Please model this.
Amino acid sequence: MGTVRRESRPGGICLLTLDKPPANAIDERLLADLDDALDRAGRDDAVRVVVLGSAGTFFCGGFDFAAPRRDAAAAAALYRRYRDAHVRLLALPKPTVAMVNGHAIAGGLVLALACDFRLGVEGEHRIGLNELAVGAAFPRAAFEIVRLRLSHASASDLILGAALYPASHALRLGVLDEICPATTFAETVFARAARLAACPREAYAHAKAALVAEAVARITAETEDEALQTMAVWLAPESRKARAQQREKLSRRGGPSTPTS
Model:
């Protein structure tokens, strides 16, 4: 069974729903399914806009720390798959809207930032880039997406502060464009999608390509040695210790139902 569900909606709207309980955490399978779904949507002339949503209380909880430890070859393959899926989402020549209806943590928030527009729902969920707190390095793709979407001040706050914030801080931090009441959230998201679907596709694709070109070029120019330097951060003793402590916290809570900073 796949981890990304596809639904066609009227007006050329393609809804992709992350569905990998309990936290839609990122691993090889989710990245492969997402990359495939985006590839299909990009090549489908009937699709004019993509909405990326999720099932459950998490939009996405970031990398799956419960996955078995990978050897060097598997870690390198995961790194490449992460890059490829995020470049495809960032550069998709069609409008993309993130429907953030739950916790968006670390790589989960990066996934939302890779979309052209981001709408969130009011609630008690958390947002943030807490990678540094758990000994995780930023892949080049993640760093460039954050730098493209956020001001330097917000990027520094989120990356170096490594804290998780209530969703109500999302507008101040610039990670969401709009926060909607739960009663009108879906309606607002699909109304935005319908408006974007009405744009002439060639004009939208041309303008979007120009906006993301520099970020995409920096991501794809990453050398193998640079990628290895990033992956080496994960193997540092303090990084391993921080992730072990995070796994212990999650285990005591019975899973990722309560994000921690």
